[in-house]
Amino acid sequence: MSKLKGELFRDPVKGKIAGVCAGLAQYFGWEAWLVRILVVSGVLLGMGWFVILYIAGWFILDKKPQSFSPSETAKRFKAKLHEEEVVNESIKVKSRIWQAGEPPRQAFRDISFKFKSLEQQLRSMERHVTSPEFTVSREINKL
After folding, report:
1. Residues near 103 by Cβ (< 8 Å), separated by ≥ 6?
2. pLDDT band, residue 77 (cuts 50/70/90)
3. 35-44 per-residue burial string, b: 16 or more CB within 10 A, e: under 16
4. Per-residue b/e over 72-108, b at no fewer than 16 CB within 10 Å?
5. Which residue of 14, 46, 48, 64 has the fewest CB atoms within a 10 Å radius of its CB?
């Protein structure tokens, strides 16, 4: 999640009503659904001033600035996805329930698959290094 240098904005694009909860979630690095649940729970448990704070946030907070056109955003998103796939197949496990990430079983499968592929690459390198062709090539390069 990207945090905007200490500035709090409301995010109507990702929000359900006015984007106040989505903006708070982005500011604190939480999931938006968690902030929504906290606000709704507060209202239901008798803290009606949450509604007043939400409405005040709606009027006081500026909308999140949109710096790219939709086509530029799509291009950047595709490039980022491709970069993430090529550079590193990162495996994210949830350390807290409200953080985004893979479920533990899926993460274990991904780690297991990655380990098996690395082991195959290592075995291939070992076969090459212990082969007679490598030894001959190395002796020729020494001359």
Report:
1. 94
2. low
3. bbebbeebee
4. eeeeeeeeeeeeeeeeeeeeeeeeeeeeeeeeeeeee
5. 46
93 contacts 37 by C-beta, under 8 angstroms: no
Dist. CA 27–CA 53, nearest whole Å: 17
- Six token digits for residue 94: 């949830």
Domain hosting residue 116, numbered range: 85-143
9 with 59, same domain: the answer is: yes
The reported pLDDT for the residue numbered 46 is 81
- Is 31 part of any domain? yes
For residue 29, which amino acid is it? G
Average pLDDT of 47-59? 82
Question: Structurally, how many domains does the chain consist of?
Answer: 2
User: Distance (Å, rounded) from C-alpha 72 to C-alpha 78?
Assistant: 10
3-class secondary structure for 27-38? HHCCCHHHHHHH
